Automatic annotation (TrEMBL):
Protein name: DUF4232 domain-containing protein
Pfam families: DUF4232
Annotated DUF4232 domain residues: 41-168
UniProt keywords, alphabetically: Signal
Parts of the chain that traverse the membrane: none
PROSITE patterns: PROKAR_LIPOPROTEIN (PS51257)
The UniProt record lists the keyword Phosphoprotein: no
Organism: Asanoa iriomotensis
Signal peptide (residue range): 1-19
Domain of life: Bacteria
Length: 179
């Protein structure tokens, strides 16, 4: 082979070898540690169920889903603030147990402590009345919910809003195992 072709061929061969090396499988990558998705930055996700209405009494379920990687302990009642459409807190009394709104029932049993496993859920119930007596009715849009005092807050928007009438109060039941 003439010397000029050898000079041209050497870079071509080196380039071909380099390209082949890039296509060769490399070492197996180490598994990436499981991460909590952005939607689950707090380790939990709270959602509101449909509003059930009958004769002016409203009931709605709250579901906490443990979307984190560790068990999530709950003990007692969710902490709730009632918000308008601009997410401004409204002057609403929030009571634990059904009594501020309705007759006590099976949901009013003592709040059991529970631990929600990863992927598991817990439920609580929100009650209110739409009674209108004196003044302007309060129509809320959102609930800001914390699983417990000091926990991060998440805002849920019940389908149809929260029509409190002029009662100015809602009631909460404790977190329970849905099983």
């Amino acid at each position: 082979m003439p010397r000029s072709l050898r000079r041209l061929g050497l870079p071509l061969v080196a380039g071909a070898l380099l390209a082949a090396a890039c296509d060769a499988p490399g070492p197996t990558p180490l598994p990436t540690p499981e991460r909590t998705p952005a939607a689950c930055a707090d380790g939990f996700e709270i959602t509101a169920g449909p509003v059930d209405s009958a004769a002016g009494l409203r009931a709605m379920g709250l579901t906490l889903r443990n979307c984190g990687n560790l068990p999530y302990p709950l003990d007692g009642f969710p902490v709730v603030r009632v918000l308008d459409d601009a997410r401004t807190p409204l002057a609403v009394t929030v009571g634990n147990g059904s009594a501020p709104v309705s007759a006590p029932d099976a949901w009013d049993a003592a709040a059991p402590g529970l631990t929600v496993p990863p992927g598991g859920t817990a439920r609580a119930r929100v009650l209110w009345r739409t009674t209108v007596t004196d003044g302007d009715p309060v129509a809320a849009t959102h609930l800001a919910v914390r699983p417990a005092a000091g926990a991060p807050e998440q805002v849920v928007t019940p389908d149809g809003g929260i029509d409190l009438g002029t009662t100015g109060r809602i009631a909460l039941n404790a977190w329970r195992d849905p099983g």
